[in-house]
From TrEMBL:
<dbReference type="Pfam" id="PF01740">
    <property type="entry name" value="STAS"/>
</dbReference>
<protein>
    <recommendedName>
        <fullName>Anti-sigma factor antagonist</fullName>
    </recommendedName>
</protein>
<dbReference type="InterPro" id="IPR002645">
    <property type="entry name" value="STAS_dom"/>
</dbReference>
<dbReference type="InterPro" id="IPR003658">
    <property type="entry name" value="Anti-sigma_ant"/>
</dbReference>
<comment type="similarity">
    <text>Belongs to the anti-sigma-factor antagonist family.</text>
</comment>
<dbReference type="GO" id="GO:0043856">
    <property type="term" value="F:anti-sigma factor antagonist activity"/>
</dbReference>
<dbReference type="InterPro" id="IPR036513">
    <property type="entry name" value="STAS_dom_sf"/>
</dbReference>
Length: 132
């Protein structure tokens, strides 16, 4: 899976949201809400979800990412995934057709190439301890 195979367009501003810990049925809904809240500004056109520190993700985490992507697309914005950890890569590479849903970049910097401005936001989200 690669973001290079997807159509990209220039963005005014991107937010990088770093997720850490576990994403499962207990917190997937909160993850989607936190991702959407991080981009709740008119000038933010792109969300880059940094998954490098995710230790575990199940199918409910995938559903949350799909829902967030769907909402952002409906609003005329987009979401990309970056640096998936080994745990995330396992589920993204399963034969679910997720390569047609997500743009996935090997590193955050590659995901930011199409943006004019970027803002890094350490996500207040972790599946291990809940909101901080």
């Amino acid at each position: 899976m690669s973001g290079q195979s997807q159509e990209s367009f220039p963005c005014g501003e991107a937010v990088v949201f770093a997720v850490r810990g576990e994403i499962d049925i207990a917190n997937a809904t909160q993850l989607c809400a936190a991702l959407l809240h991080a981009t709740d500004r008119p000038e933010c056109h792109c969300l880059v979800v940094d998954l490098s520190r995710v230790e575990f993700m199940d199918v409910s985490g995938v559903r949350a990412l799909i829902e967030c992507c769907r909402v952002m697309t409906w609003e005329g914005r987009h979401m990309v995934l970056a640096e998936p950890s080994a745990a995330v890569e396992r589920i993204l590479s399963a034969p679910l057709g997720l390569d047609r849903v997500f743009e996935v970049y090997p590193i955050v910097e590659a995901a930011l190439v199409h943006t004019a401005h970027q803002r890094y936001e350490e996500g207040p989200f972790t599946g291990v301890r809940g909101y901080e």
